[in-house]
């Protein structure tokens, strides 16, 4: 029988391996693969007029900003997460708005920006498997935000990552919510 400690250890091992592969990518390759996300915007199952939460990339994450710009051009309202207690909040992202530190090394619109409830979460992650299970960064920010947001209506969760972040199998814990799909530079893959 697998214990919670061994599940956590296994996730940590997979996280470390996937992040090492990501970090080893040359910067120009990361940029090119990030730009490729926008080429697949029409493949995303995002309802017309949905409020979409993206993220500001940190370290060597895939950069969703070109994709977010295409979603904005397609009429979607955008927002970015801010680390808050007890869970993430999401502030409206308008072109030219002032950005500030949003916690965890990321940026977001300041407190004057309107707080929104997203219909879609485009989420960063460390790793994912073929069943739509994800490995985050281990802080639980998205887990608690998803739990809270699902209480007020439907929520579509889509991971954004490089294809090389795929792992064989993520042992999901009770609080883990599977992704509806994953978007990599290779295109969109649905798990529903």
UniProtKB/TrEMBL annotation:
Keywords: ATP-binding, Ligase, Magnesium, Metal-binding, Nucleotide-binding
Pfam families reported for this sequence: 5-FTHF_cyc-lig (PF01812)
Catalytic reaction equation(s): (6S)-5-formyl-5,6,7,8-tetrahydrofolate + ATP = (6R)-5,10-methenyltetrahydrofolate + ADP + phosphate
Signal listed as a keyword: no
Cofactor: Mg(2+)
Enzyme Commission numbers on file: 6.3.3.2
Signal peptide: none
Cross-referenced Gene3D superfamilies: NagB/RpiA/CoA transferase-like
One MF annotation (Gene Ontology) recorded for this entry: 5-formyltetrahydrofolate cyclo-ligase activity
Enzyme class per UniProt: ligase
Chain sites annotated for binding substrate: 61
Gene Ontology BP term (one): tetrahydrofolate interconversion
Family: Belongs to the 5-formyltetrahydrofolate cyclo-ligase family.
Protein known as: 5-formyltetrahydrofolate cyclo-ligase
Species for this entry: Roseibium alexandrii (strain DSM 17067 / NCIMB 14079 / DFL-11) (Labrenzia alexandrii)
């Amino acid at each position: 029988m697998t214990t919670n400690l061994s599940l956590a250890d296994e996730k940590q091992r997979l996280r470390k391996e996937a992040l090492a592969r990501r970090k080893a990518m040359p910067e120009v390759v990361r940029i090119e693969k990030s730009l490729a996300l926008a080429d697949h915007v029409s493949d995303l199952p995002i309802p017309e007029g949905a409020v979409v939460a993206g993220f500001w990339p940190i370290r060597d994450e895939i950069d969703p900003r070109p994709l977010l710009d295409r979603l904005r051009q397609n009429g979607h309202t955008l927002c970015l997460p801010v680390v808050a207690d007890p869970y993430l909040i999401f502030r409206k992202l308008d072109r030219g708005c002032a950005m500030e530190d949003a916690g965890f090394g990321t940026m977001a619109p300041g407190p004057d920006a309107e707080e929104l409830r997203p219909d879609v979460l485009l989420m960063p992650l460390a790793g994912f498997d073929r069943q739509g299970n994800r490995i985050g960064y281990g802080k639980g920010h998205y887990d608690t935000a998803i739990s809270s947001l699902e209480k007020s209506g439907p929520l579509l969760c889509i991971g954004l990552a490089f294809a090389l972040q795929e792992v064989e199998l993520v042992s999901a814990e009770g609080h883990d919510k599977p992704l509806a799909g994953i978007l990599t530079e290779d295109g969109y893959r649905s798990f529903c």
